[in-house]
Amino acid sequence: xxxxxxxxxxxxxxxxxxxxxxxxxxxxxxxxxxxxxxxxxxxxxxxxxxxxxxxxxxxxxxxxxxxxxxxxxxxxxxxxxxxxxxxxxxxxxxxxxxxxxxxxxxxxxxxxxxxxxxxxxxxxxxxxxxxxxxxxxxxxxxxxxxxxxxxxxxxxxxxxxxxxxxxxxxxxxxxxxxxxxxxxxxxxxxxxxxxxxxxxxxxxxxxxxxxxxxxxxxxxxxxxxxxxxxxxxxxxxxxxxxxxxxxxxxxxxxxxxxxxxxxxxxxxxxxxxxxxxxxxxxxxxxxxxxxxxxxxxxxxxxxxxxxxxxx
Length: 311
Known about the structure:
Layout: E1 8-25, E2 31-49, E3 54-59, H1 69-78, E4 86-91, H2 102-117, H3 124-134, E5 146-150, E6 155-159, E7 175-180, H4 188-194, H5 205-215, E8 226-227, H6 230-236, H7 240-251, E9 256-257, E10 264-268, H8 271-280, E11 287-292, H9 297-300
């Protein structure tokens, strides 16, 4: 790639889990999941420029060294582009360790950008295999939008069920209010899954029922939101149950958990409704975000996607 190569930029969205069901434990020790991922308009921004070596500059709260998944993703793609460098600039807005997939989204963004920047020619199937090696949530972010996740959550089937932003034929986008409390837990995901009990298992029917409703053109309802990790997360994050109860008392609405938490979210009818709900709970510790359903990446970044498909 010549030194005059243009700067490439991509927005890396956060995700919510509209449903998250645990079907049981797999032979490899992980849990079998059925989940509906929804990308939302809370973004990190990743830029790449030519450089002699691989460099990462982080603006915001995120690991700055080798612990950052962006660097791991870059070194993974670099195996297919020897003697190539890149300067990556990451602007962080998605809270880290919050159940919103920010690190996974940044990693997927790095895979996409460097595949184009280094002209490695990896197709989406190949990038998905690289993504799985970085984390179970990373493959979803190669598509964004809304998708069904099975296996460990890393087997992705993109869905076109309702309005992506900018799709005027599909109706208005979904609106969400997110509240991220300042709770930290070392090895969070492992600790929470260790607390999952057999009575938390299900057969995937909640996810399948919601998919049927959405495919029939029905709108998402608050009662459709489901997360089997909620009890385990409340046990691991001791203040979380009280935090959720306070959110619900202040807003008069039901809230649920995204991923392994601790971010909680609720559905709003309109943008104005979402702003009102965020104001109602603004006295609680942590950070609030008002956002809506984000588009598939092919719509959001036509200059980078769709990625080539195998012949």
